[in-house]
Design goal:
- With about 230 residues, the protein is of the alpha+beta class.
- Helices cover about 35% and strands about 20% of the residues.
- It has a domain of about 140 residues: RNA polymerase II/Efflux pump adaptor protein, barrel-sandwich hybrid domain (OB fold (Dihydrolipoamide Acetyltransferase, E2P)).
- The two termini are about 15 Å apart.
Length: about 230
């Protein structure tokens, strides 16, 4: 039921964003460039939302994985900061094989924490072109640097453009992260939640999972990772 509710809100926001974008194109406005002395730098969107980093150049799957287009058909994939902090620590990670076909929204890899396994879904559809070999010897790299050296796989996607249309970016990605942070905070024991998830632009602690007792973590991970 939770997954269905989350997907309902996701589809609703996509529809709102589509209507707003369409309306903007149907009613173009002639803009006059401001004089030089009036020019101001564009306002940058916050890099941290609800305590979690949300880089603007990426697109996000609701299961908390990201995709970055490196060429028209080559896409780099990883887990987002929310997923890394919710996982906290891992002993091992199982990645797909090169040449394996993975589907958007279906299992891509498996994380192992305290001998408990949880799957993460792929944000993109296509054939695995490369896996991050560094994770074989140091799986925690995916948590320490999820947007950099901790990437998971690259995917040769013959229809990447269509896959990207199903992902979140910009305001929708920030809203989704904020909503995820709020849901997580309400599911954590008090007063642990206030200390684990930073407020007012602060950063969440690295091992949020350490604040969640027993098997509750597995239930939460499956819920947020849509697995």
């Amino acid at each position: 039921m939770t997954v269905l509710l989350v997907l309902f809100f996701f589809v609703t926001f996509l529809a709102i964003d589509y209507v707003r974008t369409r309306h903007a194109f149907e009613h173009p406005v002639l803009q006059v460039a401001p004089a030089k002395h009036d020019a101001v730098a564009p306002r940058l969107q916050p890099a941290v939302v609800g305590g979690f980093a949300v880089p603007e150049n990426l697109r996000y799957h609701p299961g908390h994985t990201w995709a970055l287009s490196e060429s028209p058909n080559l896409v780099r994939v990883g887990m987002d900061d929310f997923a890394s902090k919710l996982t906290g620590t891992i002993e091992n990670i199982t990645l797909p094989q090169r040449g394996q076909w993975i589907r958007q929204g279906q299992k891509m890899c498996t994380l192992y924490r305290d001998d408990v396994a949880v799957d993460m879904v792929s944000p993109i559809e296509g054939t695995v072109a490369e896996i991050n070999q560094a994770l074989m010897s140091d799986p925690k790299l995916a948590l320490r640097d999820p947007y950099g050296e901790g990437w998971l796989v690259t995917v040769q996607s013959p229809d990447a453009k269509t896959s990207f249309k199903n992902l979140l970016g910009g305001a929708l990605a920030r809203w989704w992260t904020e909503e995820s942070a709020s849901r997580l905070q309400h599911r954590m024991p008090m007063p642990m939640a206030m200390g684990a998830l930073a407020q007012d632009g602060g950063v969440a602690i690295n091992d949020v999972a350490n604040q969640i007792p027993g098997q509750d973590w597995l239930s939460l991970a499956k819920e947020f990772f849509l697995s």
